[in-house]
Design goal:
By secondary structure, the chain is α/β, with parallel strands linked by helices. The chain is built from 11 helices and 8 strands. It is globular, with a radius of gyration of 17 Å. The structure holds phosphoenolpyruvate (PEP).
């Protein structure tokens, strides 16, 4: 089963609606010929509607950065998967380490979000990754395997191919310190092993596992050359057209 190759930008809390519209205008023009990989921009809630319109008919898909796991209700300040689908979202990031850390999101809550996203036909990008202390203690495989197991609770074999996993070592996010291609590949192999134990070989081989953590134009080619790395989740370098375009156009 051929795996999807996906390059996704995570804009975090950046860009007003007009700034966002300008950036996707540049991306649409510069990336119009790309056919062999999927391109996604995960943007702030406020820009979703405008970009849903701006990206119609293009090869760039829209993603959100969060959701609340209910269709509707008294959850002040929250956004449901149904609302995301309604404005043209196809993807949604769940379990980003910033949300795990600053908003104390547990694997159990992330699993609820993942199930809710799939229920509305959204493709969740599930982020997992170890902290620096955990890596220094040699616990990265245990920590990440547990995250994958617990976050995929309730997801069956028919659904897993709609889930994208992003391995993002926390010590590499926004720090300029990326994992080496070998370190990343080893962790991706570990994650694929967990998927194999849960869903079988064919499904594990078909699941897209992206790498995230200080991916830049000058390191993307080496990372993407690794056999287990199927794309990139890009924070800082997705905020400028020039760097994101170069990353999308990685050569492996
Ligand atoms: C991220 O936020 O998911 C990320 C990978 O950020 P950066 O590329 O800036 O490290």
């Amino acid at each position: 089963m051929a795996r999807n190759i996906i390059v996704a930008g995570n804009w975090k809390m950046h860009k007003t609606v007009s700034e966002a519209t300008k950036l996707v205008g540049e991306l649409k023009e510069a990336l119009a010929d790309v056919e062999d990989r999927k391109i996604v921009v995960c943007v702030p809630f406020t820009a979703l509607h405008a970009l849903g319109q701006a990206l119609k008919g293009s090869n760039i898909q829209l993603g959100a950065q969060n959701l609340y796991p209910a269709d509707e209700g008294a959850y002040t300040g929250e956004i449901s998967p149904r609302m995301l689908a309604d404005v043209g979202c196809r993807y949604v990031v769940v379990g980003h380490s910033e949300r795990r850390e600053y908003f104390e999101e547990s694997n159990e809550f992330i699993s609820d979000k993942l199930n809710a996203a799939l229920g509305q036909g959204l493709k969740p990008i599930l982020c997992v990754g170890e902290k620096l202390q955990e890596r220094e203690a040699g616990r990265q495989k245990t920590v990440v395997s547990r995250q994958v197991h617990e976050c995929l609770e309730g997801i069956d074999v028919e659904e897993i191919l709609d889930v994208v996993i992003a391995y993002e070592p926390i010590w590499a996010i926004g720090t300029g310190r990326t994992a080496t291609p070998e370190q990343a590949n080893t962790m991706h192999r570990q994650i694929r092993g967990v998927l194999r134990s849960l869903y079988g070989e064919e499904t594990a081989q078909g699941t897209c596992i992206m790498y995230g953590g200080s991916v830049k134009p000058d390191n993307v080619d080496d990372l993407m050359a690794q056999p287990e790395i199927d794309g990139a989740l890009v924070g800082g370098a997705s905020l400028k057209a020039e760097s994101f375009v170069r990353i999308v156009r990685f050569q492996s």
